[in-house]
Design a protein that fits this description.
Helix content is 60%, strand content 2%. The protein is mostly helical. Strands 1-2 form a two-stranded antiparallel ribbon. β3 and β4 form a beta hairpin. The longest helix is centred in the first third of the chain and has 27 residues. It starts with 12 loop residues before the first helix and ends in an 8-residue tail after the last helix.
Length: 936
C-alpha cells in the first residue's frame, strides 16, 4: 500500500473562534425567566466510573513489552516496534542465569519456614557492641612469590605457589591497635573487598592468606562482649570465599556444556576440576592452627560434591570432632554454630552432626563456670549474666537447626538433657526460642517448673517468662492449664522493680491474657501496668511497649462498647501524654473500628461521611497545615478507596490554590510545598484498586504538576498513566454491573491527547517521546474483535498531531514553553510528526480493509465517513494524495449502501459553505468530486 503523506492545514484559531461565536439575539422578558423550565437536548456522554474491578483477565498481546517510553524511534514505525524480537542471549549469559538458578535452588534446600541466618545478622550486630578499643591483624603482601611469565612451565608455576603457601603464616602481618568498633568493622569490610580483588586478579594464594588471617581473629576474645558481632563479620568473609571457590570449580566442570544438572554427580565432573578441588583441600589441610583450618575447610565444605557422593557426610563428623580441640567454650560454641550453618546449606537432612554438635556442647557446658573463664571475666570486668547472653545467638541457631522439622521424640530428648544440667537458664531460654511454639505450649507447665528451679543470678527469670509468653502468643496451651499459667507468670512479672524489665515482660503476656480470657482479666492486667508505670512517669520511656499493648487489646476485642466499659482502659490511655503518641494511638483505635466494618454499603456510607468532613476542614492560608491534615487522613483511612480518591483531588486543588495565592511569589518554599503535594499524589495513587481511578488521577495530577511548572514530576505522572494502560481489563465493575472498558478507555485517551498537546518534550527523551510511548501501548493493547475504538483513537491521534504542527498552539499553560516554542516550527520536528501521521493513516486503512466482509460493511461505512471528517477538519486538502484519499473514503462510505443519506447531504453542504471562504476555495473542486449515490 502506498504511503499517504500527511499535510495538516494551517489554522487561524482566532478567526475560527469568531466564526463559531453565537450571534447575540435580544430576549424579550416575557419569553425568559431564570426559573422557567428549559428544554434540554440530551447528549450521551460517557461517565467515568470510579469503582473498578480486575476480575476479568487482561494481558498484553506482546510479552516482550518493556517500557513504551524508552524507545526513541529515529524514524522507525512506532507501531511495529513491539513486533521486534529480543536479542538472542549469549551462551555465557545462559550459563550465568543457570548458575544463579542453581545457587537459588541450593539455598532453598530448606523450606521457607526456616528462618535464615541473614535475618539474624543485623540484630546481632546491633545488640553486641562495645566502646572498648579493638585490635586487628592485617595481612601484608609478601614479595617472596614472583609472578610467572607467560612462558613459564606449569611445574614452575606450581612450585612458586607452594613457596607462597609456605609463607602463609610467616610474619606477613601488621597489627592495628586502638580501633573503635566502627573502625574495626570498616577494616573487616576492607579485607572482604581485598579478598574479592585478589580473586578477580587471579591471586588465589593471596585470597587464601586473607581468609586465614581473618579466621585467626575468631580465636581472640580480648573484648569478649563484641565477640558475637565479630563472628558475624568474619564469617561474612568466609562465606564469600566459599562461594568464590565453589563457582571457580563449577566453571571448570562445564567444558563445552552450558550447565551441569542441579543434582550432578562426581562422575560428571572432569579431572581438571577434581584436581583443582583436591588442591584446595590440600592447601587448607596444611594450615597449622586449628581454628583457621577448621573455619576455612568448613567454608568450602560444599566443594566435596565435586569429589565424592559421600564427601560431605564424611566431613561433617570429622569437623565436629575437630571443635573438641578448641579450649575456650565461647569460641567453640560459635564454631559449632558456623558448622551447623554450613551444614544446613549443603546437607540439611544430615541431622546426626547437628545433634552431635549440641550434645558435645552440653558436655563442655561446665567450662563456662570454670576458673579459666572466671579469671578472664575478672580481667575484662564482665559480669556472668552478661557473659552468658553472649552464648545466646550461637545456641539459638544450633537449636533452631536441630528443631527444624524434627520429630517430637528428638525435641523431648533435647529438653530432658537440658534438665539434667544445673543452672540451665541459658539453655532453657534458647530452647524456648528455637523449638516450635506448639511443642512449648503443650508443655507449658513443665517449662514453668524448670523456670522456677533456675538460679536467678545467672540468667533473669523474667526473660525466661518473656520467651515462654512469646510462644504462647503463637500456640495455645492445654485449656485446663491456662489460668494457672497466667497466675504463675504474673506472680513473677508483678514483682519486677525495674520498669523497663516489667513492661518488656508485661507487653508479651497481655496478648496471652486477651487471647484466652475476658474483659475482667484484661482489666486486672491494665491496672497492674498502670501501677508499675505511673511512678516517676516511667511510662514516658515505654511508649512503644504501651502502644503495642493497645494494639494487642483492640486486635482481640472487636466490641468497642465492651472495651470502653473496662474500668482501666481510659486511665491506661491517659498515660499517653505526648501529643504525637496520643494521636497515633487514637488513629490505631479508629482504624481498628473501620476495619471491623465488612459490608460494602457500610464502607460506602462511612467514606461519604468522611469525605464530607475532609471537604469542610480548612486551615485558611496555612497550606502546610492543610497538607499535614491530608497526610494524617491518608494514613487513617488507607483502606477506604473513595476517601483516598478524594484526598488526591483535595491535594491537587490545594496545589492549584497555592499557585493562585502565591502568584508572582516563586520562592523556594512555595516550590518545595507544591512538590510535596505532587509527591503525596504520586505515592497515593498506586494504592487504589480501581484502574480508571488511577488513570484519571495520574492524568489530573500530571496536569496540576504541569500548571505549577513541575515538568519532571508531570512527566512521571504521564509515564505512569501510559504504563498502566496495558493493565486495563476488558470488563470493569460499574455500580455492581460488569461493563466493557473500551468506551471509558477511549474517553481517557481523548482527554490525554488534549493534555499532550502542551506537554514539552524532555531534552533527553527524544522527539514526542510521550506520544510515541502512547502509540506503542495502543498498538499493543488487545482490543475487542467487534470494536473499532482503536481506529477512532488513531483518528484522534491525527487531530493531536495536526494541532502540533501549528506555529502557535490553540492553548498554553502560563510559564510553560510547549513544543511550538521549543522547536519554533523546525522542519525536522515537522518531518517527525508527518512520519507518525503516515504510520497512523496506514493503520487506519489496514483496519478498514479488514472490514470488507459482508457482516462488517456497515462498520466500514461508518469508520470511512469518520476518517473522512477527520481529514476534512485537520488535513490540507490542497495536497493531491490527501485529496484523493478523502474522495476514496467518501466513496467507500457509500459503496455498499450503508451510509446515512441525511448525514452525507449535510456534510456536502458544509463543504460547499466552507468553499466560499477565501482560504478554503479549493473545497469547490472537492465538492464536485464527492457524488451522492442513490440507495435505490
Amino acid at each position: 500500500m502506498a504511503a499517504f503523506p500527511w499535510h495538516a492545514r494551517s489554522r487561524n484559531y482566532t478567526s475560527e473562534f469568531e466564526s463559531c461565536r453565537l450571534e447575540a439575539v435580544p430576549v424579550e422578558f416575557g419569553d425568559y425567566h431564570p426559573l422557567k423550565p428549559i428544554t434540554v437536548t440530551e447528549s450521551k456522554t460517557k461517565k467515568m466510573g470510579r469503582k473498578g474491578s480486575t476480575s476479568s483477565t487482561s494481558s498484553s498481546s506482546s510479552s516482550s513489552m518493556i517500557d513504551p517510553l524508552s524507545s526513541v524511534l529515529d524514524g522507525t514505525d512506532p507501531l511495529s516496534l513491539f513486533a521486534a524480537t529480543a536479542d538472542p542471549v549469549t551462551t555465557a549469559a545462559n550459563t550465568d542465569s543457570t548458575r544463579k538458578k542453581r545457587d537459588k535452588d541450593d539455598s532453598l534446600a530448606v523450606g521457607s519456614d526456616f528462618e535464615p541466618w541473614s535475618s539474624k545478622r543485623g540484630e546481632i550486630l546491633a545488640r553486641y557492641t562495645t566502646t572498648e578499643k579493638l585490635s586487628i591483624n592485617l595481612y601484608m603482601s609478601s614479595e617472596k612469590g614472583k609472578a610467572t611469565t607467560p612462558g613459564s612451565a606449569v611445574s614452575e608455576k606450581v612450585r612458586t605457589r607452594l613457596e607462597e603457601l609456605d609463607d602463609l603464616e610467616e610474619g606477613s602481618q601488621k597489627e592495628l591497635l586502638n580501633l573503635t568498633q566502627q573502625d574495626y568493622m570498616n577494616r573487616i569490610e576492607d579485607l572482604n573487598q581485598s579478598l574479592k580483588d585478589a580473586w578477580a586478579s587471579d591471586q588465589k594464594v593471596k585470597a587464601l592468606k586473607i581468609v586465614i588471617q581473618c579466621s585467626k581473629l575468631l580465636s581472640d576474645t580480648t573484648v569478649i562482649q563484641f565477640y558475637p558481632s565479630k563472628f558475624v563479620l568474619i564469617t561474612d568473609i568466609l562465606d564469600t570465599f566459599g562461594k568464590l571457590v565453589y563457582e571457580r570449580i563449577l566453571s571448570m566442570c562445564l567444558d563445552n556444556r552450558s550447565s551441569l544438572p542441579d543434582n550432578f554427580t562426581p562422575e560428571s565432573v572432569n579431572d581438571t576440576a577434581k584436581e583443582t578441588c583436591l588442591n584446595w583441600f590440600f592447601k587448607i589441610a596444611s594450615i597449622r592452627e586449628l581454628i583457621p583450618r577448621f573455619y576455612v575447610e568448613a567454608a568450602i565444605l560444599k566443594c566435596n560434591k565435586f569429589l565424592s557422593k559421600t564427601g560431605i557426610s564424611e566431613c561433617l563428623p570429622r569437623l565436629t570432632a575437630m571443635i573438641r580441640g578448641i579450649g575456650d567454650p565461647l569460641v567453640a560454641v560459635y564454631a559449632r554454630a558456623y558448622l551447623c550453618r554450613v551444614g544446613m546449606e549443603v546437607a540439611p537432612h544430615r541431622k546426626e552432626s547437628l545433634n552431635k554438635n549440641f550434645f558435645d556442647f552440653l558436655l563442655t557446658f561446665k567450662q563456662m563456670h570454670g576458673d579459666t573463664v572466671q579469671n578472664q571475666l575478672v580481667v575484662q570486668c564482665v559480669e556472668i549474666p552478661l557473659y552468658l547472653t553472649l552464648y545466646s545467638p550461637a545456641i539459638d541457631w544450633i537449636l533452631q537447626c536441630i528443631a527444624y522439622r524434627a520429630p517430637e521424640i528428638l525435641l523431648t530428648e533435647m529438653m530432658e538433657r537440658c534438665k539434667k544440667l544445673g543452672n540451665n537458664a541459658l539453655l532453657l531460654n534458647s530452647v524456648m526460642s528455637a523449638f516450635r511454639a506448639e511443642f512449648i505450649a503443650a508443655r507449658s507447665m513443665d517449662f514453668i517448673g524448670m523456670i522456677k528451679e533456675c538460679d536467678e543470678s545467672g540468667f533473669p527469670k523474667h526473660l525466661l517468662f518473656r520467651s515462654l509468653g512469646l510462644n504462647l502468643a503463637m500456640a495455645d496451651p492445654p485449656e485446663c492449664d491456662r489460668l494457672q499459667i497466667l497466675n504463675e507468670a504474673w506472680k513473677v512479672i508483678t514483682k519486677l522493680k525495674n520498669p523497663q524489665d516489667y513492661i518488656n515482660c508485661a507487653e508479651v503476656w497481655v496478648e496471652y491474657t486477651c487471647r484466652h480470657f475476658t474483659k475482667r482479666e484484661v482489666n486486672t492486667v491494665l491496672a497492674d501496668v498502670i501501677k508499675h508505670m505511673t511512678p516517676d512517669r516511667a511510662f514516658e520511656d515505654a511508649y512503644p511497649q504501651l502502644q503495642s499493648i493497645i494494639q494487642k487489646i483492640i486486635t482481640y476485642f472487636h466490641d468497642f462498647s465492651v472495651l470502653f466499659s473496662a474500668e482501666k482502659f481510659l486511665p491506661f490511655l491517659d498515660m499517653f501524654q505526648k501529643e504525637s503518641v496520643r494521636v497515633e494511638v487514637c488513629k490505631c483505635i479508629m482504624e481498628a473500628f473501620i476495619n471491623a466494618l465488612t459490608l460494602e454499603d457500610e464502607k460506602r456510607m462511612l467514606a461519604s461521611l468522611i469525605n464530607g468532613f475532609i471537604k469542610m476542614v480548612s486551615f485558611g492560608r496555612d497550606f502546610e497545615q492543610q497538607l499535614s491534615f491530608y497526610v494524617e487522613a491518608r494514613s487513617m483511612f488507607c483502606n477506604l478507596e473513595p476517601v483516598l480518591v478524594q484526598l488526591v483531588h483535595s491535594v491537587n486543588q490545594l496545589a492549584m490554590e497555592t499557585r493562585k495565592v502565591m502568584k508572582g511569589n516563586h520562592s523556594r518554599k512555595t516550590a518545595a510545598f507544591v512538590r510535596a503535594c505532587v509527591a503525596f499524589c504520586f505515592i497515593t495513587i498506586p494504592s487504589l484498586t480501581s484502574i480508571f481511578a488511577r488513570l484519571n488521577l495520574y492524568l489530573n495530577s500530571g496536569q496540576v504538576a504541569l500548571a505549577n511548572q513541575c515538568l519532571s514530576q508531570a512527566d512521571a505522572f504521564f509515564k505512569a498513566a501510559v504504563s498502566l494502560v496495558p493493565e486495563v481489563p476488558k470488563m470493569i465493575n460499574i455500580d455492581g454491573k460488569m461493563r466493557p472498558s473500551e468506551p471509558f478507555l477511549l474517553e481517557f485517551f481523548c482527554n490525554f491527547f488534549s493534555t499532550l498537546l502542551i506537554v514539552p518534550d524532555h531534552p533527553e527523551q527524544g522527539v514526542l517521546f510521550l506520544v510515541r510511548g502512547l502509540l506503542n501501548v495502543i498498538q499493543d493493547y488487545t482490543w475487542e474483535d467487534n470494536s473499532d475504538d482503536k481506529v477512532r483513537i488513531y483518528a484522534n491521534v491525527l487531530h493531536l498531531l495536526s494541532a502540533m504542527t501549528q506555529e502557535t498552539y490553540i492553548y498554553h499553560i502560563d510559564k510553560v514553553d510547549s513544543n511550538d516554542t521549543l522547536y519554533g516550527g523546525d522542519s525536522k520536528f515537522l518531518i517527525e510528526i508527518n512520519k507518525l501521521c503516515e504510520t497512523v493513516i496506514a493503520q487506519i486503512l489496514d483496519h478498514l480493509k479488514t472490514l470488507g466482509q459482508e457482516e462488517t460493511l456497515k462498520r466500514q461505512s461508518q469508520l470511512a465517513l469518520y476518517f473522512f471528517n477527520s481529514i476534512l477538519a485537520h488535513g490540507d486538502l490542497r495536497n493531491n494524495k490527501l485529496n484523493q484519499l478523502s474522495v476514496n473514503l467518501w466513496n467507500l462510505a457509500q459503496k455498499h449502501g450503508f451510509a446515512d443519506t441525511k448525514t452525507m447531504v449535510k456534510t456536502l453542504e458544509y463543504i460547499k459553505r466552507q468553499s466560499k471562504q477565501p482560504e478554503m476555495s479549493h473545497f469547490t473542486e472537492l465538492a464536485l468530486r464527492l457524488p451522492l449515490q442513490s440507495r435505490t
